[in-house]
Amino acid sequence: MLLQLLFVLVAIIIGARLGGIGLGVMGGVGLAVLTFVFGLQPTAPPIDVMLMIAAVISAASCMQAAGGLDYMVKIAERMLRKNPSQVTILAPLVTYFFTFLAGTGHVAYSVLPVIAEVATETKIRPERPLGIAVIASQQGITASPISAATVALLGLLAGYDITLFDILKICVPATLIGVLVGAFFSKKVGKELVDDPEYQRRLQAGMLNDKHVELKSVENKFKAQLSVGLFLAATFLIVLCGSFPSVRPTFGETTLGMPALIEILMLTAAALILIFTKTDGIKATQGSIFPAGMQAVIAIFGIAWMGDTFINGNIGQLTASIEGIVTEMPWLFGVALFVMSILLYSQAATVRAIVPLGIALGMSPMMLIALFPAVNGYFFIPNYPTVVAAINFDRTGTTGIGKYILNHSFMMPGLVATVVSLAVGLLLIQLF
Q1: Hey, is 193 helix, strand or coil?
Q2: Dihedral of CA 158/375/131/217: which sign?
Q3: Is residue 108 within 8 Å of 99, Cβ to Cβ?
Q4: What ranges in 123-163 are assigned the alpha helix state H?
Q5: pLDDT category, 301, cuts 50, 70, 90?
Q6: What is the DSSP letter of 40?
Q7: Which of the residues 15, 26, 331, 340 has the least number of beta carbons within 10 Å of its own beta carbon?
Q8: What is the dihedral angle through the alpha carbons of 177, 182, 186, 189, rounded to the nearest 10 degrees?
Q9: What is the pLDDT of residue 418?
Q10: For residue 9, is pLDDT > 70?
Q11: For the segment 358-404, what is each residue's pLDDT rounded down to a tens digit?
């Protein structure tokens, strides 16, 4: 088993270094080794999760193509510029709700340059709002009803009479409180901007200019608003049907499952956006959301399939070796989720790879929900795209990677937000 685990970890590490679809295809290599070398029988591929993600990404991409995302960014910009002194608190709330609504953290790219500019103009250290804003965009994934990670968790817990509302009532307040606490801690990070030596060096060298960030204009405001409205309507229906199973269609004694429901509603929303806004469907595939989402699909395809096969083939040994520890200290499973997310760079892939093990160990579904925010660990190593983007958008040089790599601008807000989210989640499951 240990040798099999070694091959699994090597496949994950190499895949993460390859980037893009590398993680997914290396999962295929690991699966091939497990099957042909070690003789493990492959489990069924995670088709439902992949199709749900594809449907959500299709709708979000159509909304972006219709100008909906640009419209939302414009609203966020006005709010930030109206309250510049509170940018450290407002910035993470903006990126959190962007992710919450769109189901992907990649929507944060559009607003990060605005956050950096507003902070610089107000003489607030940009590292403070940028650091927690990136973390908030990740935390929002585990609160969003349509994110790949939430959908994956809901699918795995479907047999335990767990509804979408059961996940949201724990994860939304837990992650939101975690982000806010992280934001308040961020207000004291580093020196004040005017006292920062790197900022002063760049200022004296003439490296800073007064050029303003120019956001992409919304060509047709009505179409943009309509696309956002249709997308949010589909999201609302998913939350409603996921929270109240009696609302869903029944066929004899069988109720329509959440995977099929999400796929139907999101594909319908995508079609309605294209039809009523007269948007070219090809344009939807050329934005930032579609390729990022498809990468997630491929990642889950390979990694989740490999992980399922490994766990299923070694379930006896795994339960015998760690069942006692996890039963006595279930929070340790949260540590496992955090560490694995660092390796996988994907909340959804982490859920599909690790949560089945928690289920096999007999962990309570509510405990797994409370530990869900632990999958937001990929800020730990500062090479994720949103992290790199935030560093590049900060012209003052206050946001960056430290001498020892791990002492970077995102470590403190990330750890604070994650730990607080887990603590609040564990408290809430006691109350509910």
Answers
A1: helix
A2: negative
A3: yes
A4: 127-139, 148-156
A5: confident
A6: P
A7: 331
A8: 150
A9: 96
A10: yes
A11: 888 888 999 999 999 999 988 888 877 788 888 888 888 888 887 77
